[in-house]
Amino acid sequence: MKGMTVIVKTVTRWVKVFIFLYGIYIIITGHLAPGGGFADGVIIACSYILLMLAYGREFALKRLSSRAAHHLDSSGVLLFLVVALLGLGYGGIFFGNFLQTRFPGVAFKLLSSGTIPISNIAIGIKVAASVFLVFIILSVLRIVLDEDGTQKMVQDEEEE
Amino acid sequence: MGIEIYLLVLLIFIIVGALIAVETKNLLSAVISLGAIGFGLSIAFLFLRAPDLAIVQIAVEVILLIFLIRATIGRDVISAKGHIHWAGLVVICLLAVAVFVFGLFAFRSLNEFGAPIIASVQDAPSNKYLQDGLKSTGAANIVTAVLLDYRAYDTLGEATVLFAAIIGALAVLRGRAASRRKGSRQMGSPQAGSERRKDK
Question: Distance between CA B137 and CA A144 in Å, rounded?
Answer without folding.
Answer: 50
